[in-house]
Protein 1
Amino acid sequence: MARITAGVGTSHVPAIGAAIDLGKSAEPYWAPVFAGYDWSRAWEHEAKPDVVILVFNDHATSLMLEVVPTFDIGCADSYTPADEGWGARPVPVVEGHAEFAAHIAESLIIDEFDMTILNEMEVDHGMTVPLSLLFGSVERWPVRVVPVMVNVTQFPPPSGDRCYRLGEAIARAVASFPEDLNVQIWGTGGMSHQLQGPRAGLINREFDTAFLDRLADDPAALRKITHYEYLREAGSEGIELIMWLIMRGALGHDPVVRHRFYHVPASNTAVGHIVLEAA
Amino acid sequence: MSDSPRPGPGYDAADLADIPGTTIFTTASSRRAYQLHRFCMSLMKAENRAAFKADEGAYLDRFAMTPEQRQGVVDRDFNRLIGLGGNIYFLVKISNTDGWSVQRAVGTMAGMSGDDYAAMMVAGGRSPVGNRSIKGAH
Ligand SMILES: [Fe+2]
């Protein structure tokens, strides 16, 4: 039977990908960011997941223009890294798990989450930067990926509470898949940042710290955070944190915090990272 | 319409409008900026970036955006483009084409020099204190 063994929360700042690709990761500005993931890369090497359900948002790459789905799931065999305006990242094509993804998609829809199904898409930094951070520079990604995308950009995104419940439904879907799979779920994006207007550069360490403090033991408090509070406190792009609640919802009761990291800044953004193991 | 309060996390349009220096990207914005955004997404192809760089005016003629949006692109005025419906995830395709970092592009909207903006970020970013409410409620 497939089982969710762990959850990972991580920022997915595009400049982190650029720093890796341009060989800048040892520079003083970037070294502390990557050091925050050393423990996690070693842990992933031991954990050996078969599949990662990777929750992220498309940043006007494959979505957002013609179609703006609230929740979608990739059911393709593979996903090609996109050219976001400076050439595609030189990282491997991401291998999917079409059969598992189709099972999750069907299970979620039967469970009353109206998923949009994507049979083809290119993926942006929202997916490839977390893969680079957790697996390093590799010839081939050591996992297959089921992408779950959330609209966090065009108002209104789904509520944080709805995201949490989607996570619970994903856990039910995984548990009913007959193949023996070691599955992780990653929630990506955040932490506080604002990429627009005169308030650009907003960082709220207090808000981010409280979010990390509560994620494992008091998710009920995080489920109550409104869009207005995210926008006001964490910045217009900090609302990406609702995607971490999908990850948390899928982990069930009493996960154990194995690693935690916070650093300001990477480009315009507060980098947050947490590793939770399912009880 | 029911009189009972909405369950779960809600929001109030007046609250969203009260956040300083922040434009909410809505369904209406998305419609308003559709041609602008089509242009931005076209820059995800190397040959289109080359055509745009070779002759910005001729390339922009391919897209039926408004004259104001077109001028905003020519001026790389991201605050103005956001005011005209644009969203940063589309707009960075322009600054990526120009070879600008996202930080440099975002910093242009903050009303400070690129160096000052970068220094502010290294020092911990812009504090939310005093930046929560236009009316001063927070
Ligand atoms: Fe993002």
Protein 2
Amino acid sequence: MNAIIISAILGVVMMYSGVLTKNTSAIRNVAIVGLIVLLGLNMAEGCGYQLFHINTKGMMSFEKYGLLFNSIAFASTLIYFLLSGRDIEKVGVYVAEYFALIFFILCGVAIVTSFNSLLLLFIGIEIISIPLYILTGADKRNLKSNEASLKYFLMGSFSTGIMLMGITLIFGATGSFMLKGIAPLVTGAADAPLNIWLVSGLLLLFISMAFKVSAAPFHFWTPDVYDGAPSVFTSFMATIVKAAIFVAFLRLFDGAYGEMKGAWQSIISITILLTLFIGNITAVFQQSVKRMLAYSSIAQAGFMLFALFGFNEFAKEGIILYSAAYSLATIGIFAILIKMKDYTFEGFNGLGKSQPVLAATNTIFLLSLAGIPLTAGFFAKYYMLAAAIKNGTQFWLVIFAVLCAAVSVYYYFRVIQSMYFKTGNAETSTITPAFKYVLIVLAGIVILLGVFPQLLLSQMYF
Amino acid sequence: MNISQILFGILTVLALVSALGVVVSKNPVYSVLCLIVTFFAISGHYILLNAQFLAIVNIIVYAGAIMVLFLFVIMLMNLNAEVEPQKSKILKFAGFIAGLCLFLVIVAALKNADEKTQTQATQLAGGDIGLIKNLGRALFNDYVLPFEISSVLFLSAMVGAVVIGKKE
């Protein structure tokens, strides 16, 4: 509860800071300090220290797992503010409001990681989505940003409608919004035919959640929106928000529908197959690094879906590790991308000579996304595939995933090749020493998690 | 056949016909008017379900505020059948197929619904939960947490509206 209330209050604080001062770096510093407080209080709640005692009537439960994910999300956002905070200031004039919206999104993240009721899932997802529509269109004079925002808003509204319809049907079947109220109905139906309203409701809920995590065949909005949005906000959308919705997805299906996973696995395996295939194959043909990263985020979503396929301890640990590994690496790559003048692969030519620190850290992030050992991405992918293997069925899907990971190496290494083995003068905007230090620390965390993943995972248990 | 069944039949036919009218009619103004009729028919259904509050809110918010906004936009932009952009045949066909697929999936999921006679629609608290007094009590007791948290949602939407709408 600490995280939800404090992040909402911090959002209001940011709005007032915009009224009191026009100095954008002061606003940024307020945001960074606020985020540190938020992170600290969230960790304190993990140790049993609660600021507020609110009777949630069982609609939320704050367990270790959700709190750990909150901490990861807040820590990633902190690194994101430190790396790209200056670029947020350059997007438009309403700097304080952008920070406020980001805090509201974090409030939504904290809700969807600890909901017990479908009602709160809906509100949480909406609190995440609506500020994102606005951040996508933040660059008002850019026509592409406007188009992306409108597209995202229209498609997102439809998927919200589908989600509401699903929740309505589930409520009709069970008479309750609670995940606990649904679970006995599902288990009771193991031998009897499944309740028809429940199944159609679940189908609609699955579709809308798959839309939000941009799993194929509901991924069509992703490339345009990620490409059109200001790069700083794409970085946030593609990482922290996406991982949070995956946690919500897992919580929803784990809490209520774990028992009937036999009925689900065929649908999920088709979704994984399509997502991995479309994401990886289309990414190969992209000329712009930003658009390549959009498709790569679809491909990574395919891997994260393995957690839903597996439904076991490996899956739960894996999604934590995956979201940390994927978020940190992608935030790093976007931070470097924002500094580039030219977003195409050619724009990176010769970066290894002109900016060795940027090139070296970028290489580590790309290796992590590709899943090369000694980086966090390797263990993240390993846990996901282990979850699927432990599950015991449909072994071909694992083989397919490994093949897709091999394809992904091609387009990630194209960037590395441009940086080191091609001559050119990669133009960057001014790089401050502080930016470099944060990048080095971030790369250090990525490698540390790749060597000792238990550092993070052991937090789940005590 | 009692009076509520007859009313249900009339309202359902009205809702379906006017909903079809929204999609079929060429003139956008007729579409909006049909949509208003649909909302009124659905509000009638709410009253049959003993949910007065929902019925009134549906009329005030949807048929009142949102539809008037729709009409204003359509009239200000002077849209009519002539200026409506023509979609290509292939696009229409694709849309038709996609809609049919969704329809098929839902029909396939619901095709057994009639066979289960014991599957009754859930009735909460004797069916009088829709009365304003009971609804308020539920909202401020059982559902006070979602009610309060939705304030964050509205606040963020308001901030967003200002960010998008204000002149730079």
